[in-house]
Amino acid sequence: MTPDAMLWTSAEAAAATGGRAQGDWTVSGVSIDTRTIAPGDLFVALTDARDGHEFVAQALSRGAAAALVSRIPEGVAPDAPLLVVPDVLAGLEDLGRAGRARMTGKVIAITGSVGKTSTKDMARTALAGQGRIHAAEASYNNHWGVPLTLARMPADTDFAIIEIGMNHPGEIAPLARMARPHVAMITTVAAAHLEAFGAIDGIAREKGAIFQGLQPVGHAILPEDLPVTQILRDCADAAGAVVLGFGDHGAARPLRITAQDGALACHARITGETVTFTLATTGRHFAMNAVGVLAALSAVGADLAQAAAHLSDWQPPRGRGAVEDLGDIRLIDDAFNANPASLAAGLAMLADLSQGRRVAILGDMLELGADEVALHRAVADDPAMADVALVHCAGPLMRHLHEALPEDRRGLWAATAGDLAARAPDLISAGDIVLVKGSKSSRISMVVEALRARAAQDKG
């Protein structure tokens, strides 16, 4: 293993966690999944649906250099390369804190009800060529995802981008304190996880808790023009942050956004400097988050013009608003998650695409609390619905939207996404532009896969 590839030595990991290291080993990565483990990784035996200790022997056989455990698992040699700690999750947290402590670069933390992962990916793409970049994989933003990201961070990282999420009150502040960002950005605050918070004000206060982890004189990048913007400002002020708002009336704001051949050409002013950039999407919400990203990058000293130029290399990931030509239809795959704000953004994106009949295929929005029925019915009144010709719905909650739609726009309704996916050929026609959107647990992605299978069959 080359010095550049070495992430932790056994002595360093033991000092970070207070654990007992067996053997003299070095690791080049950190993994929690034997299915994707790489030779040289430290396997972390977390307990979730199953106890990770059951997989330690398998991890070592697949090339793991060591394992982080709370006991010597059955089937593992007593002298195996291990780091033994009282509690595995706490050990991972300690390793993450140590990873953050030894890093001398700049850290950006991102949270928000919508757009955390795509915004994190934008920031990573925009920073290309400006140093060594480290960012969270996928949506690793929870109680194990944040420490895992920090534990994987090379000591010589110049810029780190940490995604922080939540489902319940009290989750964000501890993760923000672990990440200790120089800049913290909130994409937006919307009706998500209302079941746990009761009202959007509570969600705003929880999102604003990210500022509690800021380094001294850190920057708070927050959305202007929201009903709860003042709550976010109060949270930032309480943390002693330098506040920078982004949005139509923010210090960082778009000047002009123009749709061009499935992309957006954007002109923006970022704290006095005018930049231009192009995004490979027609979603205006992506452009607004890109403005916030540029404000955050400016705050950590990145070259703004260079960052804006690299935004053209960013692509929306599958399931989060990516547009693809799928045989004889155009698909907006936005099936990873849904709440009223993100659904409104998806419908606006659908409405902005021309040259075809617009069709929406929608699954239930979950965790909306006592108002879930009313929030589903209200989608029928979204201004973008005027441009949608047909709406198919799946799930008991989306039945309320289905019943609220005018009859001429009411497509199929099915009890489950699987039932709707089985009727995929009946949902669309050649030339359609199709949005598929719903909460991940609604499994509306099954419709996306059915549409892809239909296109592959037609091609074959």
UniProtKB/TrEMBL annotation:
Q: Which GO terms describe its molecular function?
A: ATP binding; UDP-N-acetylmuramoyl-tripeptide-D-alanyl-D-alanine ligase activity; UDP-N-acetylmuramoylalanyl-D-glutamyl-2,6-diaminopimelate-D-alanyl-D-alanine ligase activity
Task: Quote the pathway field.
Answer: Cell wall biogenesis; peptidoglycan biosynthesis
Mur ligase central domain segment(s): 110-296
Keyword list, A-Z? ATP-binding, Cell cycle, Cell division, Cell shape, Cell wall biogenesis/degradation, Cytoplasm, Ligase, Nucleotide-binding, Peptidoglycan synthesis
Superkingdom in the source lineage = Bacteria
Instruction: Please report the stretch or stretches of sequence annotated as the Mur ligase N-terminal catalytic domain.
Output: 27-76
- Reaction catalyzed: D-alanyl-D-alanine + UDP-N-acetyl-alpha-D-muramoyl-L-alanyl-gamma-D-glutamyl-meso-2,6-diaminopimelate + ATP = UDP-N-acetyl-alpha-D-muramoyl-L-alanyl-gamma-D-glutamyl-meso-2,6-diaminopimeloyl-D-alanyl-D-alanine + ADP + phosphate + H(+)
Its function, per the record, reads: Involved in cell wall formation. Catalyzes the final step in the synthesis of UDP-N-acetylmuramoyl-pentapeptide, the precursor of murein.
The entry assigns this protein to a family as follows: Belongs to the MurCDEF family. MurF subfamily.
Name used for this protein in its record: UDP-N-acetylmuramoyl-tripeptide--D-alanyl-D-alanine ligase
